[in-house]
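Following up on my earlier thread - several people asked me to post the actual chain instead of describing it. Fair enough. Here it is, all 488 residues.
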Amino acid sequence: MDDEEQALTSYALNLRFSGITNTMLCADSRAVPGLLASRTFSLVMLDLSMPHTTGEEILAHMRARGLDVPAIVITGHNEVETAVRCMQAGALDYLVKPVDRARLLAAVTQALAGRPAPGPAVTAQPAAPPADSGGELLTRNPAMRAVQAQLVAVARSREPALVVGETGVGKELAARGIHAAAGLVAGLGTRVARPFIGCNVAGLDDVMLSDTLFGHKKGAYTGAQGGRAGLMEEAGDGTLFLDEIGDLSLSSQLKLLRCIQEREYYPLGADAPRPMECRLVAATNKTVAELLDPAVFRRDLFFRLRTHLIEIPPLRDRLEDLSLLVPLFLEEAARQTRMPAPAIPRELYPLLEGYPFPGNVRELKSMLFHACTLHQGSGPLDLAPLKGWMDSVRQGLEHAAPPPSPAASAPAAPAPLPAREALPTLRQAEARVAEDVILQALKEAGGNQSKAAKLLGISRQALHKRLKGLGGVTPGQHVNPGQHVNQG
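Reply from S.P.:
Thanks for posting it. Predicted structure:
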């Protein structure tokens, strides 16, 4: 309980990232008596200085009603005497603002030790952290703690975010962390029913990307028998997560850039734009240096996305987190296999610390699930499957193609020009380029000639004239995005 919403969100997210997910937030002290009467809690944290009803008064109310619930009071620097008085009245501990994360977790952990979990009157949360709780982002690593704090901060903004990191570090988990934090910001602890929509955009061509993200109207192209909503519409005011954005074509990147800049998009075949209401989180396993290569990624899109740039370190740079992640994954594997979780042998951590984890946290989880599935009996976890896994990966890495030598990586000499008679005339070359540009504009406009003309910077009449010159496209005809006009 705290009248400062920012403080409430910070407390909840710090607890959530530490695996404590069953929380309720309250910013209005007048609602507290009703909540205490209607629900069961294992712990109450309350700020002393709240309007309407102070924390000290709430503590007295709890004592008068005989509520046997441990309480932690939160105080400012000038209220320590009041906090001590509250402890004399039954409070278990007190925290001084600004609350240190480690101190918060220590106080909450100690207070919850030996307390039964609250009944179903609170929420229907499962015992294990949900997928978007950041359970796999548990960390002791300073760099990862900075990432966690960044996720909370980014959740307050509607600007796009870009998550960068190697394969398997948990980029989607980070995106879900932003989404979960945004729900807490908006709903003060109650789960706001906002969708999280994920899409791997690698391999999508321009037309498929437009159709997937923006949707289409009936008759937008050949075979479009009915309209279909795109993922942006399905995401609503939730979160749209685009994975592997670094593999998009440059032309698809341009479409996305326009959508982000204008906060609107055109479904294929539509005459009117639709507003982009969702939060956009993109991810890639390419490095920032690779994204700054104009042959790979548009710089204008990169700088638009990097408003919130989140770089997740690889697992090999945060090995201190193994002692948090290993028990988590073994317990999860045991639940799925309906077997008791095996004991962790003391040789396991040195074995893992000597492995490079090219697949990062995802690989750690997979290899532990593999070992847990093969485990027999009730003894410690058998390390043989893990050693076999590691040997196999190491051999694969050793036999992978070596990095190119400086001579081999030098730019290849330009190919000789073809013979003069093979070259098109300048007029022919200009016509071919014009055809490609016009068809690309028609694709981006969903076949709408007025929009295509606007994209090309010419009048609709001028576009009409050029289309007649190309042949195969008549005024008012919607173009199949995959169509190519033959010149004959």
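The domain at 315-390 is CATH 1.10.8.60 (Helicase, Ruva Protein; domain 3). That should answer part of your original question.
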